[in-house]
């Protein structure tokens, strides 16, 4: 598609050389209202995914990032404040991405809304692999029915497709219905679910040092509170 030329070097699909692969991804989390349910469903379905996390959500809910990694899924950077690239200067955008990187520590980056300025692309490409998509479910659109969203998956999914769902409050109504249906249908079609990076290099499931610090501080606060109650 013509718009892919606007983000040179980005990955829109990652076709398998043998068989059929699919990349299930989730944007905008992690949040306690939705992400744990997604993780449980992925366990039930027996597939792995990649979560493009918003840094501020990781700051608030670091245990959820730990759980995503513990269950064997991949992670990526989705900025710290979920900012719009076309409305933000290159320097401010990069600062926001770097702030998220301190918590997430992934080489994979996806811009919110898929929008970037050329100056942002050039700087980001020096640090990250830009991961886009070729199947966006639009699960966040309340005017779309689950049947319509499932139709997008049936119509556009192919070998190497990168599919986007959202573990967000806005998307959860549609996502909770369609995501399991989509996974089951894709499995029936013979697709193998991959994490972003599985075909490129080993996935690093170690925790960024800043996340370990946040969790440690939280544990220290709990211990201090408990001692005050004794």
Automatic annotation (TrEMBL):
Chain ranges of the NodB homology domain: 20-194
Biological processes per GO annotation: xylan catabolic process
Gene Ontology cellular component annotations, sorted alphabetically: membrane
Keyword field: Carbohydrate metabolism, Glycosidase, Hydrolase, Metal-binding, Polysaccharide degradation, Xylan degradation
Matches recorded under InterPro entries: Glyco_hydro/deAcase_b/a-brl, NODB_dom, Polysacc_deacetylase_ArnD
Example GO molecular function: hydrolase activity, acting on glycosyl bonds
Database matches in PANTHER family: CHITIN DEACETYLASE 1-RELATED, GLYCOSYL TRANSFERASE-RELATED
Name the UniProt record assigns to this protein: Bifunctional xylanase/deacetylase
Gene source species: Porphyromonas crevioricanis
């Amino acid at each position: 598609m013509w718009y892919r030329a606007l983000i040179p070097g980005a990955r829109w699909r990652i076709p398998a050389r043998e068989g059929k692969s699919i990349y299930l991804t989730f944007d905008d989390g992690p949040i306690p209202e939705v992400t744990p349910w997604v993780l449980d469903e992925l366990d039930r379905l027996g597939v792995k995914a990649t979560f493009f996390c918003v840094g501020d959500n990781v700051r608030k809910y670091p245990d959820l990032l730990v759980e995503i990694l513990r269950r064997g899924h991949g992670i990526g950077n989705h900025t710290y404040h979920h900012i719009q690239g076309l409305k933000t200067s290159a320097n401010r955008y990069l600062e926001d991405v770097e702030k998220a990187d301190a918590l997430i520590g992934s080489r994979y980056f996806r811009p919110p809304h898929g929008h970037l300025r050329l100056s942002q692309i050039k700087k980001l490409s020096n640090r990250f692999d830009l991961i886009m998509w070729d199947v966006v479910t639009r699960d966040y659109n309340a005017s779309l029915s689950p049947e319509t969203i499932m139709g997008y998956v049936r119509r556009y999914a192919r070998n190497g497709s990168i599919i986007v769902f959202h573990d967000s409050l806005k998307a959860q109504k549609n996502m909770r219905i369609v995501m399991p249906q989509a996974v089951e249908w894709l499995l029936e079609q013979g697709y193998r679910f991959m994490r972003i990076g599985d075909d490129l290099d080993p996935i690093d499931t170690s925790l960024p040092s800043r996340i370990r610090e946040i969790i440690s501080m939280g544990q220290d606060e709990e211990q201090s509170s408990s001692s005050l109650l004794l």
